[in-house]
Amino acid sequence: MSYEFDRSRFLEYTTESIAVVFQSLTSDLIGTLKGYPCLFSYEGNEEDLRVGKLTSIKERGRKLLVEFELDQNIPPISFDKIKPIAPLLDIRDWEINRTHWAVKDEDLYERLETAGILNQEQIRGPDKLGRPSAKKSTNPKVATVQGFIAKVLFSEREPGSEVFYRGHSNKVKYKLEPSLFRKDDDGNYLYLESEHILYKELMVSNSADFQSDENTLDTLVRMQHYSLPTRLLDITSNPLIALYFACKSAYDEDGEVIIFSMARSEVKYFDSDVASCIANLARLPKVEKDNINFDEGDFNGQLSIKRLVHFIREEKSYFEMNIIPDDLRKIICVKGKKNNARISSQSGAFILYGLDAVMNEEGTPEITVTRITVTNKLSILKELDILNINESTVFPYIENSAKYVAEKYKFNKSLL
């Protein structure tokens, strides 16, 4: 038996600490998942649940194909029997009403046996579910600016490619996802369901700040600048800026610089039609985004798509009602306008995430991802300061400059 579904549905309703481990489906992690017992259910509680195991897991572009077999020694289980122990199995409210694949930190067989649903004869002594451990990193490690520059300069680069960087302070916790897609510790989305409301509320309360924006992408870039959760992920063309962000906090944790490489033809600009299609998803209510059927023959005839086209035509009057379905689910690199000092100083660009888009931790067919682990952060920050990479230049506002100058020239008795 098999089932294919969108990769964005993988790890929904999964506790964050476990989801981080399984973001990148290496052969070892696939082997781990195949060793876990599974509970299979149809969406909506309409049929009995079954127990079984996965026999194959394959990534196919945006899809995951899983093959599985049901345990014929265990009869179908009615949802009425599962419902009383749903909290013990970490099955959450409404979770059973959405097709997805979650990984839970619970011993399925033990819970079913304790509840009197299974007995030892049925279980036949299967392997028990344990918490997976993160894979060991094989990324190169640097402890100086010089070492970092050497790694960057001598890294292989394909002809006609363009490279961007992103730094973050904790290599264990960080995932390649925009702030809009972040979840709480229980795996629940914090902002995604309110995307269109966040957009409108900030526009209403600070409309004067957005008057110069010519399109929705411009507006999202400015909102990102003001720390509103958006579909954008900041990247930079300057590797030293990324190194600064990898070192600027969490000094006791290893940081990381992520390197994104792609064909120059894959890089979009602020006036891209594909970028407009994805950016304007921010204005579409969640219920309308959920109603988009990508298998619909008359894709552009759907009401949700018609409304999306209406938003796009507000900035591009020539735009025709002919959206390519897969364009809405892409992950693209976009060079926006350098319309504020921060973007200019940080050599900023963005990765823009489409509907239900998930960036594999190892990259996509279009975007190659490599990583450099960063240690010795405080020493690196001092070296970067000599190169004029510091809070004052990375965040070019007078309050940041004042803070930097005051700290740099503060009286220090140990220097006397």
Detailed description of the structure:
The protein is 30% helix and 18% strand. The protein is an alpha+beta fold and 416 residues long. It folds into two domains: 2-123, no CATH class; 141-407, no CATH class. The chain has a four-stranded antiparallel beta sheet. The chain has a four-stranded mixed beta sheet with strand order 5-12-8-6. A four-stranded mixed beta sheet has the order 7-11-10-9. The longest helix has 13 residues, at 303-315. The chain is globular. The N and C termini lie far apart (75 Å). Mean pLDDT is 86; it is low at 125-136.
In short:
This protein is an alpha+beta fold. The protein has helices at residues 16-22, 27-34, 79-82, 108-114, 120-123, 145-153, 195-205, 216-225, 239-247, 273-279, 286-290, 303-315, 341-345, 377-386, 391-394, 398-408, and strands at 2-6, 37-40, 50-60, 63-70, 141-142, 161-168, 232-236, 255-263, 267-269, 331-335, 348-353, 368-374.
In this structure, how is the largest beta sheet organized? Answer: 4 strands, antiparallel
Average residue-wise pLDDT: 86
Shape: globular
Separate helix tally? 16
Share of β-strand residues = 15-25%
Number of strands: 12
Quickly count the domains: 2
Q: Span from first to last CA?
A: 75 Å
Order of helices and strands: EHHEEEHHHEHEHHEHEEHHHEHEEHHH
The Rg value, from CA coordinates, equals 24 Å
Regions with pLDDT < 50 over 5+ consecutive residues? 125-136
Task: Work out the helicity level.
Answer: 25-40%
